[in-house]
Specification:
Layout: E1 2-4, E2 9-15, E3 22-24, E4 26-28, E5 33-39, E6 43-52, E7 58-67, H1 74-83, H2 92-106, H3 108-111
Antiparallel strand pairs: 1-4, 2-3, 2-5, 6-7
Protein name: Flotillin-like protein 3
Organism: Camellia lanceoleosa
Length: about 120
């Protein structure tokens, strides 16, 4: 059968005749192949990161990050399709993963700043 992806999605085709994952906007799905729709629209994540300044004064840093794949990079889209797309973008698994990465990277910036 012939399938066409929507405006904010890509088809990820696997199994028979495909070594890894084939990404396409429109493609033929042959007998023995499977496909999933990968949504590529970005999602906002809002966090409050507990950080510490150079003077060792703790404060709460509000942070909002928009997470989505780089649609201009084939390698980035493949990683996104393998790691993130099997889960709902608003699920606890994805939120905890994103929050862990963001908290670790965000604490570095305020650690070099003064309270002024």
């Amino acid at each position: 059968m012939y399938f066409i992806a929507g405006p904010s999605e890509v088809l990820a085709v696997t199994d028979c005749g495909i070594l890894d994952i084939k990404l396409a906007k429109k493609t033929w799905i042959w007998l023995g192949q499977k496909f999933t729709q990968v949504y590529i629209s970005p999602v906002n994540h809002t966090f409050e990161v507990q950080a510490m300044s150079v003077e060792k004064l703790p404060f709460i840093l509000p942070a909002v990050f928009t997470i989505g794949p780089r649609v201009d990079s084939e390698e980035g889209m493949l990683k996104y399709a393998k790691l993130i797309s099997p889960h709902d973008m608003l699920s606890n698994h994805v939120t905890e993963l994103v929050q862990g990465v963001i908290e670790g990277e965000t604490r570095v910036l305020p650690a070099s700043m003064t309270m002024e």
